[in-house]
C-alpha cells in the first residue's frame, strides 16, 4: 500500500528502529511498511496515525479511490 | 531467519535460543546414528522405541518454539513466518509424497522417513530469501 511513512519518519529524524520502538513493532515491520511489502492492520494504521497526529488517509493512500 | 543481530526482537532472540536448544540434541543423535554404531544394539528392542521418541521430541519442541515466535512477534513477522512455514511444510510434504510414490512405482531407492525433517529445514532455507512480503 502506497504511503508517506518514510517521509514522515525522516522529517522527525527517526531511524526505522526508533519508529519501530514508538509503534511497538520490529524494524523489519517498519521497513516492510515503507517499501510496500506489508499492508498494515487497521490497528497498526491507527497507531501510526496517532503517532504522527494525522488522519490515516494522509499517511496511506486509499487504493480504492 | 536465525540471525541474532542487535536489531532483532526479544521474541526472535528467544526463538533462536530455543531452536539451538532443540536442534543441537537432535543433530547430535542423528549424526551419532549415521556415523557410529553406538545405537545399533537397540535395534529391534524396546529401547529402539525410546530412541525414536527421544529424537522426535525436539521436533515437537521446535514446533512450540515457532508457534511462540508467531504469537510474540509483530504482525509483519507473524505473517511472514507463517507464510514461510506453510510453504516449506507444503513443499516437504510434496517431496515426501513424490519420493514415496517413486519408491513404489519407479523403483527409486528407499530413503528413511526421518530425513523429511532435515529436508524441511533445507527447503525453508532455500525459500526464505524469496518470502519477503506478507501479501
List low-confidence stretches of chain A: none
Number of strands of chain A: 0
Global shape of chain B: flat
The tally of structural domains of chain B comes to 2
Q: Assign a percent range to the helix content of chain A.
A: 55-70%
**SSE class of chain A:** mainly alpha
Estimated helix fraction of chain B: over 70%
Fold-level CATH name of chain A: 434 Repressor (Amino-terminal Domain)
Known CATH architecture of chain A: Orthogonal Bundle
Number of helices of chain A: 5
Oligomer: heterodimer
Q: What composes the largest sheet of chain B?
A: none
- Share in β-strands of chain A: under 5%
Spans where pLDDT lies below 50 across 5 or more residues of chain B: none
Number of strands of chain B: 0
- Along the chain, the helix and strand elements of chain B come as HHHH
Please give the most extensive interface between any two protein chains, plus how many residues each contributes.
A-B, 15 and 14 residues
What would you say about this model in short?
The complex is a heterodimer of chains A (65) and B (135). In chain A, helix 2 (16-23) packs across helix 3 (27-34).
What would you say this structure looks like, in words?
Chain A is mainly alpha-helical and 65 residues long. Chain A has helices at 5-11, 16-23, 27-34, 42-52, 56-59. The radius of gyration of chain A is 11 Å and the shape is globular. By secondary structure, chain B is an all-alpha fold. Chains A and B meet through helix 3 of A and helix 3 of B.
Features:
heterodimer, A: 65 residues, mainly alpha, 434 Repressor (Amino-terminal Domain), B: mainly alpha, 72% helix, 0% strand, flat
Topology:
The complex is a heterodimer of chains A (65) and B (135).
Chain A lengths: L4 H7 L4 H8 L3 H8 L7 H11 L3 H4 L6
Helix pairs in contact in A: 2-3
Chain B lengths: L9 H26 L10 H27 L2 H31 L9 H13 L8
Helix pairs in contact in B: 1-2, 2-3, 3-4
Amino acid at each position: 500500500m502506497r504511503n508517506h511513512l518514510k517521509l514522515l519518519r525522516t522529517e522527525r529524524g527517526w531511524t526505522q528502529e526508533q519508529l519501530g520502538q514508538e509503534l511497538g513493532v520490529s524494524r523489519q515491520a517498519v521497513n516492510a511498511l515503507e517499501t510496500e511489502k506489508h499492508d498494515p492492520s487497521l490497528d497498526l494504521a491507527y497507531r501510526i496515525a496517532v503517532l504522527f497526529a494525522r488522519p490515516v488517509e494522509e499517511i496511506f493512500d486509499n487504493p480504492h479511490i | 531467519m536465525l540471525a541474532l543481530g542487535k536489531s532483532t526482537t526479544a521474541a526472535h532472540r528467544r526463538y533462536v535460543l530455543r531452536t539451538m536448544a532443540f536442534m543441537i540434541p537432535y543433530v547430535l543423535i542423528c549424526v551419532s546414528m549415521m556415523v557410529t554404531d553406538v545405537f545399533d544394539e537397540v535395534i529391534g528392542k524396546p529401547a529402539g522405541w525410546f530412541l525414536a521418541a527421544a529424537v522426535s521430541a525436539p521436533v515437537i519442541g521446535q514446533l512450540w518454539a515457532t508457534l511462540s515466535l508467531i504469537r510474540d512477534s509483530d504482525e509483519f513477522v507473524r505473517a511472514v513466518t507463517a507464510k514461510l512455514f506453510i510453504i516449506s511444510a507444503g513443499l516437504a510434504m510434496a517431496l515426501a509424497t513424490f519420493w514415496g510414490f517413486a519408491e513404489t512405482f519407479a523403483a527409486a531407492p528407499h530413503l528413511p522417513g526421518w530425513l523429511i525433517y532435515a529436508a524441511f529445514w533445507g527447503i525453508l532455507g532455500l525459500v526464505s530469501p524469496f518470502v519477503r512480503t506478507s501479501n
